[in-house]
Amino acid sequence: MMTTASVRQPHAAFDVFGQKIEELRQEGLYREFIPCGHLVDEPGSTSHQGRKVQVWCTNDYLGMSRHPDLIKSQCESTTVHGTGNGGSRNIAGTSTTHVELEDRLAVWHGKERALIFSSGYVANFETLSTLLAAVPDMVVFSDALNHRSLIEGIVRSGCEKVVFPHNDVAALDAALAQYAADRPKLIVFESVYSMDGDRSPLSSILDLAERHNALTYLDETHAIGIMGPTGAGLSEELGDHRADFVQGVFGKALGTVGGYVAGPDAPLDYVRSHAPGFIFTTALPQASMDATLRGLELVQDGNDLRRDLLDNARYLKAALRAEGIDFIDAESHLVPVMVPGSERVRAVSRRLFQEFGIYVQPINFPSVPRGGERFRVTAPPYRTREQMDYFVAALKQCLAQD
Question: What are the structural domains, with CATH classification, of the chain?
């Protein structure tokens, strides 16, 4: 029988947290978390307090998390292997599927080895912080719009850091030229930047790396499953596989959970042996890895899904443009809709949810600069044109009321 423990009075030191939370509220930066129950039989919908709501900000770009093959694979694997692996990767947590999936990921990206982590954030943080700290006198060159996981991994390493303006090849070239050719260097950048939806000048950056004798670390998070003939990312789309390290995730286009890094054997073996966030955390369940393996197979043969996603993005942009709604017309499946002002973007988000049954999360500082508040909208393959028209009409009405 469950009993209720007595609650201690809060310590006086906790007052500072209450004050800081109130400051966030006053600045319009307090994050709201809406409990959802995603519905398999109605893709893109979730239940909230008995009400069905359409989700327009999902990272499940291809709708794979609801694919019957993935659900079947995970359920069947659970009946055989259970709900967890019972330990970290080095303590009985490395399943046969972990090994098979890592082998397939390495081949997918044309690398010697791949290493699976509990999330994409952990993959970036642990790999970068471990590798950079191991190389004496290393200097890292980081794009100004890199994801927080990349930034934190670089900072934790303690190495020298140079931040170059976003996608500015000339500035990066000049920065690299300030260091001797034999100085260890690593360029860290992304293929698709999630807040603006823009692509990096990948081949130009890799050209610079060769010219200046630098290593490269490429985050393909938002391109995995979407770009390239088999969905291996922007590198595959361009046919340019020179990046030394490639990071990807399972929790977006592949529809499950986890992240990985692919690259040379020895450095990733070193990470496997030294990264605390890899060594001392419970392994992802084998059932989840079996579902991911099936998702990978479907994504690799998913040209129809990729086509439908990009067609939807084009249709949605055209509909927004026709109604005079401001958005960033980037060369990707991501559609950032600009709603400047932290209070305004939150108010529009609330109206969409309450009046139209549409859930789209406001994005504000520090994820984007103040004044650059927005919605990051996605229209996966299952979205119909009627649904997209409904979304645009609702958004127009809510923006006009503000």
Answer: 31-62+303-401 (3.90.1150.10), 67-300 (3.40.640.10)
